[in-house]
Every structure is written in structure tokens, then in C-alpha cells.
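Weekend entry, working from home. Most of the wet-lab plans are on hold until the incubator is repaired, so I used the time to fold the two sequences that have been sitting in the queue since the last round of cloning. Logging both here for the record. First:
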Amino acid sequence: MKIGVDIRVLMDSHYSGVSQYTANLLSALLELDKRNEYRLFYNSFRNIEGRLSVWRRDNASLVSRRIPNKIFNYILEKIIAWPKLDRAVGGADIFWSPHFNFSRFSRATKNIITVHDLSFLRYPHFFSCRKNFWHRALAVKEILRRAAHIIAVSESTKNDIVELVGIAPEKISVIYAGHNLSRSKEAISGREADDFLQSKKITSRFLLYLGNLEPRKNLVGLIKAYDMLRAKGQEFSDLRLVLAGAPGWSNKRLYRAWRQSPYQSDIIFLGYISQKEKEILYSRASVFVYPSFYEGFGFPPLEALSYGLPVVCSNVSSLPEVVGSAALMIDPYQPGEIAAAIQEILTHDDLRNSLIEQGRQIAANFSWEKTARAYQDIFNKL
């Protein structure tokens, strides 16, 4: 069987979210499936073949177009409906799209698309005008209706597809991801971790948030909760709040909340961090806090659990599916609940230890090999 894969999500040199999902799953699929032939399509006006050569295997080849992306997406794919991606790779029985993108297929192939979330349909006010325009231009509902099969990363996402797009439930399969964080090949020394934390002025206990900085993640509510916790007295005077992740969009309210906090100097923005730095933060933080308003899956809480880090996260969308009973669940619209949950973990060792043990057990249930086998089953059935 010839399987086409749209790897345009892997164009950036730094992977996160969907691109990290695609990279991890593709690695697992190519390792697992030696019977089928994978044809990986990408488009880039720049020559980036050297960076993508890691995907060239005995069972996988790279196929590219050297066309400026705006011309390829908006004019060729959107308006002219050319090229058909399955034909561009020399033919494919199945073509897997790991994310929404401008794409057309011939009737000779069956398109499978993975849906990570429909936050832009559920909560369009969390997105910038530019982002909302992009989603409208994609015609997401039409893409989903044309697909032969849809893979949702959670039951919550499947429910959204049924409710918001009107897709029949039997057309959708739920396949959970593995957890995205692969540990470094070389162990990180205590001295290396200390040097990194000191360079960022993190010299005491700290709460950790990791993810993009955008309105949907509810970081304004997290800062309010942190202010409440610090106001309780000396017991929490050494506690810092560390926000790690790339800046997103519409963050004026976030930075206003930071400037207005009486503990502004103890709230630390790290920006984008490397895998090794991520591991250091997970291994040294006191509590991981993820008060998001909406998640299609929620990788960071799962990664934190795998590191034995107790988690406080929202009781909405997919998060209860992912963390189960291994986290303290809170209403993201109630900063007081967030503060109280953090305090519970910081002041009750029995609770902390119980969450750590349950977290490791739950994280062990998620693996990319398991995800790849489920995808392979879908390919074979179609």
C-alpha cells in the first residue's frame, strides 16, 4: 500500500504542538510499518531538504515542490485545486493529513485527517483577526466533510466535530497520542540544571506553566491565582511563577496583569525553551499549573506527570480524559480555586506523593507505538 503524508507542518526548525505530534508519530509509524511505502510531501521555496533528510528511510521517500507558500496555498490549492497531492507524490492509496492545510486530492485516494482541536470554532474570540481569517480561508468544515475518515485526538475533540460540523460519529476514530517529551540521550547533571536556573534567576521554589502564551491558556487567571497565593503570607514568600513558551497573540491583557501584580518581579517569562531546558523545569518545579479554557488533548500536563510533577489543571474539554485522577482539577474561571489547589499540594505531602504516583502510572499508558499501531489499523481498514 502506498501512503502519502503531508509533512508541511514540519517546515519549522523548532517543533511544538502539532509539529511535535507529527514528528513523533511519523517516527513510530516508519519504525513499525515495514510493509507499506510512505511518500512524504512538502512544499518550500527555500531548500530545506537537508533538515528533512532524517525522514528518508527504506520505506519512506521525500517529494517536494519549490513554490512560494502563499502562491501554492492560496492560488494553486485553494483556487485552481492543483496539484492533487496524491498525484504529486506519484500516487497514493491513502493520504494522511496530520493537520488542516490547503490541499486537494483525486478520487483515486482516500484522505484521512487528524483533528487536534476545534478551538477556533468553539471560541473564535480567543484568536486574532488574522488567525480567524486563516481558518475561514481553509474552509475547515468542507475539509472534514470531504475526508474519507477523521482521527480525533480525544473524545472531547470527537464530540466537537460531531456537534460543530455535523459529521457522523462513525466516521471518526479517537486515537490518543503518546506524550511528546523524549528524554535527552545524555543525563542532565545537577550542575547543568543549577546553572540554567540561576541564569534565569530561578533560585527558589517555583510554579511552572509551559505552553504558548495566548488567551486560551488563561494565564491572566493564573497570575491572579498566584497573587492570591502570595497574599496569604510568609509561607509562600519564596514561591516564583515561571511561564515558559513562545509568545502567541492578543497578549495585552496578560502583560497588563503581570505589570499590575504586586509580585511582578517574581513572575518570570522564559520564552521558547529547548527540550533539555524543558526537562530541567519539569524535574525542578514544585507544581505544574495548566488552567487552560480549552484543549484538544493537552500535552504539557501529561509530560509533567511523566516527570513525577504534581499537576493542577482545568476540568474542561479533553483534560480530564488525559490526566484522569492524577491531577487536582479546577474551574479555570475561578482563580481562587486555582490558588487553593496549588496550596493543597504545597502543604500536604501525602496528597503530593499520591498525585506523583498516580501521575506516573497514567503517563505510562500513553505511547507513540500504541498510537502508531492504531493508525496502522485505520490505514488497513480503509
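Second, folded right after the first finished:
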Amino acid sequence: MAALKYPASAWTRHRSLPEKDGDERNPAEIDRSRILHSAAFRRLAGKTQIFGLGQDAFFRSRLTHSLEVAQIAKGIALRVGADVEVCEAAALAHDIGHPPFGHHGETVLADKMNGHGGFEANAQNFRILCEIEVKYQDEPGLNLTRTVLDALLKYRVPFGAHPRKFYYTDDPRLRNVVEWAMQGFPNKSFECQIMDWADDIAYSCHDLEDGLHAGMISRQRLMSYGAEIIAAAQANLADCTDEDFAGVLAIVTECEAGGDVQRVQAARKSRISLVINELLQVGRKRRIHPAGTSGVPVRHQWDLEVAPELRRRCEMLKSAAFVLLVNDPRVASLEARAEIVLPALLDQYRAAKAAPLYPEPYRTRFRQQTLDDDRARVACDFIAGMTDDYAERVYSRIFSGTRSALADY
């Protein structure tokens, strides 16, 4: 399908800063490269997706998940005529704000930061890209284009307007960038919808594959927890039915096709690939503003339309993975570690005399703060950027005196 035409105004950057001469890449390709080469992106290799890292090389990390989301987003973009590089860039960056210890880590930091401006992983993505990552000597952030930043804004209400899904408002400079990227449009951009659907596809299908490999998802266990899985799906998407559950049961049954190990692995990979392809192929764009509507950017003239039955299937897959994996000791132990390590670190690093604990440039940032909320934000930024292992090492160094290596800093 022919790609949408984006005007030059779509590629403006928030700051007018000198760029390299002779760069033949388009602005979205440049943004994708800046994200790909960022320190925050590399650290995703050390952050948990579902199962704790180091237990089995098969399981996905945040990095491999993000790469898979980017591939799926590219496929959707090609099908519906969106800008491929914008969708890939947003997909690559969509999880860089996630803290250590998976979703449990996000919940812990959100609870601890509730009275200090909040914590939300999508909001943290934006903060990292615009304020924390380093590219220029005298300006913060990667200075990405408006269209790419808008594609990353899943939650478009300020902190306080929703208990868990928001953008930060405690930094006026960052809030200014958010509002500049949104241009007053309350709904997700076309490219953001593509990134979000690609994430749902990857999350549902690849968590299923990891769960099958771990032995935690099987036809037998699905049958045993069927009522709980259906209830979990309906809590998020009320239209989910027993028939949708039966569809997931059929998928898992095919993934367990008999034979030797290679045949079982091939059946699993083939069936999950077909599910991804099916979920990917059904998307299409739907115009929501007439062509040429004054003041409406191209990225807000279209919606991504996905068949209701496919959204239900995706939701049922996610719910099956959630219900069947949440009781796995490898997952439960990660939750326990998040509840022990992260609150202790946050309290320690936001204390008034904590500056010597920080490496630069966080030490300088912390010393510039006099208010508890601002110190808490610096501590949260530092801790959210940690990998699982680094958080464990720092915790052990401070609280137990073990694993004490100067290389930790």
C-alpha cells in the first residue's frame, strides 16, 4: 500500500541544534538510529520481560521483545501505508522506560512515587528520550522529531488525571515538549496505534511461547484455569467469550503436536508465527478526518482498525499467559525481589545526604535539588535505568556488604 505523505512540519525538532552535514537518511531514520544507539536501549538486554534473566537463554528480555515489536510494527506499517521508520522507532523505544524486575518493578516504583509526581513506564520513555539520554554537549535528550515523539505517547493525560496512565507534569520543560508533540490532539496518533497493537501482538504471542517452553502453559493447565482466564480477559475486554477461550485452547493444542523434540518445537514455532501473521494482517487504516482538513496533521487523520474478534483473541492470549505464569516461582520470586530491592534503593537514594552514592551526572543533578519531590525524581530516574543485575549488586553493596565491586560504579 502506498505510504502516507507527511509534510515537512512533521519532521520538526523541538530544539534547533546543529546536525551532521551530508546525512542522506530521512528524519525518521535518524531518530530510529539515535534510539538504537542509546544507552537506555542497550540496557534493555539486562531487563526482564516475564521470566528472570539468567535462568534460561530462551526467555525474552526487554531488548529481544522490543526488537520483535519493531518487526511486527514494520509489517503493519507496510500493510496500512504508515511511515515504516516512525513505527519502527517508536517500537524500539516503547519499553526503554521500564525499570528492573519486569512489570512488578513498575508497580513498585509507581506506588513509591505516587506522592512525588508519579512513575509510569511510558512517561519515563519520554523523559529518557528528552531529558536523560546524552547526545549534545549543552542540551539534554536526543532531540527527536515531533512525529516520532507523538508516536510514543500512549497515555495523553497529565499526572493526576488517571491513577496509572499519564505523562509527567513535575518538570515544566518536559511538559512543554509533551504538549508540543501532541499538538492538542487527545487521541493516539496513527503510528502510536500501530506500535501499540504490535506490542500487544508480540506480548501475547511471545509470552505464550515462553510459557510453553517453561512448561507453564499447556492444554491441561488451560483447562484447569479456564474460568479464571476468561474472567481476566473479560475484565479488560468485556466482549471476550468462551469461544475466544476455545480458540486459544486450539492454538496451544496444535503447539503441543506429538513427535520428537524437533517436531514439537517446529509445530510450536509455526503455529505461533501463523497467529502473529493473522493478527498483523487484519489491520487497516480508517480515515477519521476528511482529506485536507485544516490544522489536522496526517498522523491524526487516520485510525488503525482491527477486527473485534482479533482483539478478543489477543486479549485472551494475554490473559492466559498472565494467569498461568503469575504463579510460577520464577515470576513470583522476581516480584518479591522488586518489593524488597526497589523501595529500599529509592528511600536510600532520595535521602538528603545521598549525593555521594550517585555516579555523575546524577550526583550533580541531585545536589542541585532542595525539595524532596525533586530528589525523589532524580532517585527514580537513576533506579529505573538500572538493569536487574545492577539493581541487585547496588542493593547488596549498600545493605549487606556483599558483591562489593568498585566496577559497580
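Plan for Monday: verify the second prediction. The chain has a mean pLDDT of 89.
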